[in-house]
Hints:
single chain; alpha+beta; 2,3-Dihydroxybiphenyl 1,2-Dioxygenase, domain 1; 8-stranded mixed beta sheet; 16 strands; Glyas_Bleomycin-R_OHBP_Dase; dioxygenase; Glyas_Fos-R_dOase_dom
Amino acid sequence: MTQQTTGIHHITAFVRNAQETVDFYAGLLGLRLVKKTINFDAPEVYHLYFGDEQGSPGTIITFFPWANSRKGRIGGGQVGITSYVVPSGSLAFWEDRLKHFNIAFEKVMRFSETYLQFEDRDGLKLEIVEREEGQPSKWSFGGVPADKAIKGFGGAVLYSTAPEKTAHLLEHVMGLQKVGQEGAYARFKSTADIGNIIDINVTPMPYGAGGAGTVHHIAWRAKDDAEHALWRSHVINSGFQPTPIVDRQYFNALYFREEGGILFEIATDPPGFARDEQPDSLGEKLMLPEWFEEHRSQIEANLPPIQVRVLEGDKQ
């Protein structure tokens, strides 16, 4: 049986400062903070999720803000660049917005598309590209109107220590289609309309080092628990060693490391972020899994306060 992921589910990265991360991704980029929870393996650290108004698969970037973490080094075995997609005709808005907030950027061309490439406060590499594909956002915040807002992921650029093996996995294990090669990049496409374009740097890259400003893993979509179980068997039969399935409250997950060093996750679309909060109040309260509820007061006391706020540059 052929397995085929529809695209990216989420991307998870390390940062240092929780409030700066909220200001950048909600305040500057206009994403919605859809879930405020903790790292289940380190409850003294937030796990923050940003996405569209619902936190739909293909829109979600998540962060572990470790205040005293080392600075990471982007390199092989990582997502090198996280791509966001915006509506056609809105790239000039984003160019002006980055200038307004003194965010350095450069314009680059790849596969006949123009990208604005820039970094967040910790050096995580991001880019914005405009495309027709993808449902328009219904979320607006601060200075980002809904008709200019980020739809979700455009995709990602993978940095691999063994790009030929990573490419083989994308095509023959994950079910993406190779659609082109241009210069330093090979391009693969999945079937979703967002989170669907994956470029691989075809030059082997030396290993990066995890830490603030780097991606920890990229997660791919499984439509439900039944397909998720099939994915685990498929990954094993393809010669990889996935973890057992883990309950992450808002999706189930399994993990494996591909031969180019990148940590892959496969995550279920359901149950989603409204399982424990009303859709109109997502991200407003610290949500804990039931096994941590008895420690809520201690956990909350150890976490720095954060708030979603309109940036000063948008009040002028």
